[in-house]
UniProtKB/TrEMBL annotation:
It comes from Clostridium tagluense. GO terms for molecular function: phospholipid scramblase activity. PANTHER family: PHOSPHOLIPID SCRAMBLASE, PHOSPHOLIPID SCRAMBLASE-RELATED. This is RNAse. Pfam families: Scramblase. The lineage of its organism: Bacteria, Bacillati, Bacillota, Clostridia, Eubacteriales. GO terms for cellular component: plasma membrane.
Length: 193
């Protein structure tokens, strides 16, 4: 199952004139698809994306497990001007936590909070803009690294491929949901134009 893993390879599907994206999620060890993430922003937001930047508009991303054929979790971002509070819900619709973006950082990043408002991780980017590290209590808890699939594809499309890896240790399903959601949010919520 999708949430039984600690490593995820994310591959954005290339689409011409896309108004919503789809991201395939693979097990990097078995090289099999284990899930996908699909933006479902709504009809009005599709239209507004023609005139307003995507980063300001609300968005909903459903992350589905291909084995169970069900929603594993949902990421919801409200309309925002500067810094958004992105919420995460499990497949049953239960609130699991949120992300709070940093305003002034060179490499980008945000904090990850559980449903009780406790900070469970910090996500920090490097100055180059596409390598991120998860930190828990000042210690490394995982990484997000960009995986180049070929210079031609990366230059002429906006498709991204990247790896989300959690370090060894005990992770509850709620924590895996929040950290995988944070990894996906780097691209879908914070980086996409």
């Amino acid at each position: 199952m999708l949430l039984d893993r600690k490593s995820f390879f994310i591959k954005e599907q290339v689409q011409f004139m896309k108004f919503s994206g789809r991201y395939d999620i693979f097990d990097p060890i078995l090289n099999t698809q284990i899930g996908f993430a699909k933006e479902e922003p709504g009809a009005l937001v599709h239209f507004l994306r023609l005139i307003i930047g995507k980063g300001m508009l609300p968005n909903k991303i459903n992350v589905c497990d291909t084995e169970t054929n069900s929603i594993a979790f949902t990421i919801k971002k409200p309309f925002t001007f500067l810094r958004s509070k992105v919420s995460v819900y499990d497949g049953a619709g239960t609130y699991k936590g949120y992300f709070k973006g940093k305003i002034l950082t060179l490499g980008g990043g945000f904090w990850v909070f559980d449903s009780n408002g406790n900070e469970i991780a910090e996500l920090k980017g490097d100055w180059k803009g596409w390598n991120f590290n998860f930190f828990q209590n000042g210690k490394s808890a995982g990484t997000i690294t960009k995986k180049w699939s070929g210079i031609g594809k990366e230059l002429f499309t906006s498709a991204d491929n990247y790896m989300i890896s959690l370090d060894e240790g005990e992770y509850t399903q709620d924590k895996i949901i929040l950290l995988l959601a944070a990894g996906l949010a780097v691209d879908i919520v914070y980086k996409e134009n």
